[in-house]
């Protein structure tokens, strides 16, 4: 093989490697944050759009922060309850229906607690923000969470 051809191949090989590294670094740099951090940023953006005084904005964000930590714990409890159900179903041998019924009741209670806490939270947030700003908050939040381009489930 001629020296000129070898140099051309080496040049293209180096260019390809550099291109790969640049693309990889770009993708890593632009990679989205975890969903939990993204959703918090979206909530902060919605509160900022309300143009509340700084003290009211901070109280609203504190209220949401407390709710999120409580809701995360309730979500973890529900995952644990559902895991217990799956472990019972995965056991070999006959199924103990009474034990399954008890575990299902625990999971149902977790779902009910989540719903009740959600209702208490949104009512408290709506009261905290007032009727006008509360309605605007939930309207903006709906726009953020509504799937883009997909069918509406209304």
Automatic annotation (TrEMBL):
The chain crosses the membrane at residues 7-29. Keywords: Membrane, Transmembrane, Transmembrane helix. This is Periplasmic heavy metal sensor.
């Amino acid at each position: 093989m001629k020296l000129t051809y070898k140099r051309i191949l080496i040049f293209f090989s180096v260019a390809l490697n550099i291109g790969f590294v640049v693309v990889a670094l770009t993708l890593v740099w632009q990679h989205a944050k975890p969903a939990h951090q993204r959703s918090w940023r979206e909530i902060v953006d919605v509160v900022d759009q309300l143009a509340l005084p700084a003290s009211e904005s901070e109280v609203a964000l504190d209220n949401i922060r407390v709710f999120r930590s409580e809701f995360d714990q309730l979500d973890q409890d529900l995952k644990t309850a559902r895991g217990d159900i799956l472990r019972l179903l995965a056991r070999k041998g006959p199924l103990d229906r009474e034990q399954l019924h008890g575990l299902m009741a625990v999971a149902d209670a977790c779902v009910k607690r989540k719903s009740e806490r959600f209702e208490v939270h949104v009512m408290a947030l709506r009261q905290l923000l007032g009727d006008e700003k509360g309605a605007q908050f939930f309207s903006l939040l709906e726009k953020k969470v509504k799937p883009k381009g997909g069918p509406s489930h209304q």
